[in-house]
Amino acid sequence: MRKGANERRNEILDVADELFGQKGFDGTSTNDILEKVGIARGTLYHHFKSKEDIMDALIDRYSIRLLETGRGIAADKNIPVVDRIIRVVMSMNMSGGSSEEIMDHIHRPQNALMHQKIQKVIINGLTPILAEIISEGIEQGLFNTPFPYECMEMVVTYANTIFDDDMVEMTIEERATRVGAFVFNVERLLGVENGSLMSVIGMFDNNG
């Protein structure tokens, strides 16, 4: 039975995802993928031009999943507002298995455009999700800002560039200072009391 184009494409991606996680991107050959899926080379190249093309498609798929996860957390009214913000941001942290390979791949100099693409997805996708939570916090009297979207755009853009090891090299001490300054300034942006968002620092401890 011939499989549909979408089904076959996803099957190739699933296998590549698994193999990249097990053997690494460089350690996985197109032959490995062909053998595991059980298809001819022509079938693979019908869907993907190269192994790099497969990785690009995996990044697209991860981006969609990340944002879907973020939206799901944001919509859970049973989680307190500040916890929800932290969980949404943490859900963007790609780690473990093939995710490590994806992050290694996009951080290579030759993949600068791919890196930029992921950053664009996070800034454009994460900002409205967080802004919605902030608006809810404003209604509850937790935050005081007339600019929920712009505040989150500043926060996400800063966090996505300054705390990206490829963009800014920092010692552990410098990173700790940046985190403290980041939380201090986010409190000002959101119009909350000094120290009220200190729990956010734990997010960077887990992330760093």
Break the fold down into its secondary structure elements and pairings:
Blueprint: H1 5-23, H2 30-37, H3 41-47, H4 51-74, H5 81-91, H6 98-106, H7 112-139, H8 148-162, H9 172-190, H10 201-207
Quick overview of this protein structure:
The protein is an all-alpha fold. It is 71% helix and 0% strand. Helix 4 (51-74) packs antiparallel against helix 5 (81-91) and helix 4 (51-74) runs parallel beside helix 7 (112-139).
Question: Your description of this structure?
Answer:
α1 (5-23) packs across α4, α4 packs antiparallel against α5 and α5 (81-91) packs antiparallel against α7. The model has no long low-confidence stretch (mean pLDDT 85). The chain is elongated. The longest helix is centred in the middle third of the chain and has 28 residues, at 112-139. With 208 residues, it is mostly helical. The chain contains ten helices and no strands. It folds into two domains: 1-48, Arc Repressor Mutant, subunit A (Orthogonal Bundle), CATH 1.10.10; 51-207, Tetracycline Repressor, domain 2, CATH 1.10.357. It starts with a helix and ends with a helix. 71% of the residues lie in helices and 0% in strands.
